[in-house]
Amino acid sequence: MPEALLDHADKAQRPLYIIAADGLDCWLEKAPEGAAALIDAAGFRAKRGEVLLVPRAGKSPLALLGAGKKNDAFALGDAAMKLPEGDYQLAEAPEAINHQDLALAWLMGAYAFTRYTPRKRPPARIFIVDANAQAARQMAKAVYLARDLVNTPAADLNTGELEAAVHDLGKSFGARVSAVVGDDLLVQNYPMVHAVGRASAHAPRLVELTWGQPDHPRIGLVGKGVVFDTGGLDIKAAQYMRLMKKDMGGAANAMALAHMIMAAKLPVRLHMVLPIVDNAISGDAYRPSDILQSRKGISVEIDNTDAEGRLVLADALTRATEEKPELLIDFATLTGAARVALGPEMAPYYTDDEGLSADLELAAKRTGDPVWRMPLWDGYDNLLDSPIADICHTASSPMGGSITAALFLRRFVGDVPWVHFDIFAWVPKARPSHPMGGDAQGPRAVFSLLQARYDRN
């Protein structure tokens, strides 16, 4: 992680003034002598993300950062890479900008994926008064973890490497990690995880992480870990396969949330289940029209092998419910239909629990981690009917694809309080706090919800 946050103030740090567009005139009235004329001559209007350095005789220059009209800390996350390199100290900001949010946004905007090439420049470093820099770093580490995993191609992050990443995460916090690999999936009754992953030279696996005291409230966490998705025998066209290294984004986001929970020492019993597969093509690939048995005992007719994620999730969700969690959360890059509905920036979620939904909406607003509730519409449930199996894994209609995928998963959850995220896990065009590439969508909101429910401090 880059050293973008400073822990102490220093006289050598340049003062940074964050100015709202509607507060610029008032600020100029009290600006240091001579500065107002220079600022006006430079055409600075405090638009969002606008940066200006104002020279001062014998002193370090004033740094100005426009907040625009919204006064949103996360809308300023790109300032770390817009300001010239060097050290800054927050001198003033609109009251509506939360300093803790600004610290996290600064780190989120400073991210760069450096596994294969060095970053172009260091971020500007800042001291933010009244912000807990260490807490911001811990949260940013979790976000960086998700981004790094999603950004890494399958040549370097296949099923074994993703399992190793879970072991590394568990070791960092004293969690127990176990895995069921290859044909042992059949022995231990994970038949759909095995079916989806058996065609690959990289063995499929189901990885579990357990952390926390056994008598604490149980939280189940599941993430789709398809390290690459060719589509299987129903192979994807090239333009749709290009980004399929990110199809393990659900697992990456689940790991980010697990990191947050364990770093904060929340008093919960965490049980994370990750089905990890490579949806490849070979003579042993599963086929359209196959009937698969599931861990839950539900027989599933296969319609399209490119809808593999819900199959591996079904076995993993079944395993998670066996521990009787009081809350079950899953993350998955599951459907293109979710992107058509809400685009790449919002995290669609599904739940039948009204209280859970209300708490999640409040948490999303607190954290600036946008989510949007989608309907588990019972009227579409019969679209999953199969004449020769208990259920078909895709719907008989192409409409409402994200909804019908969620309805399929619901069959494997039972009456456990459950929330399902159908995320993109990718930023196609850079925006403040979110550089282009892999991303965490939803974990910060869910963590805030869990913190509100369970944190005793």
Write structural notes for this entry:
The chain has helices at residues 24-29, 35-42, 79-82, 99-109, 133-151, 159-173, 184-187, 191-197, 238-241, 249-263, 309-321, 336-342, 354-367, 401-410, 443-454, and strands at 14-20, 51-56, 59-68, 87-92, 125-127, 176-181, 205-211, 218-223, 225-229, 269-279, 291-293, 299-301, 327-332, 347-350, 371-374, 391-392, 418-422, 426-427, 437-438. It is an alpha/beta fold. It has 2 domains: 14-110, Leucine Aminopeptidase, subunit E, domain 1, CATH 3.40.220; 139-454, 3-Layer(aba) Sandwich (Aminopeptidase), CATH 3.40.630.10. The strands form 4 sheets. Strands 6, 7, 8, 9, 10, 13, 14, 15 and 17 form a 9-stranded mixed sheet that branches. Strand 11 (291-293) and strand 12 form a beta hairpin. The protein is elongated, with a radius of gyration of 24 Å. The mean pLDDT is 97.
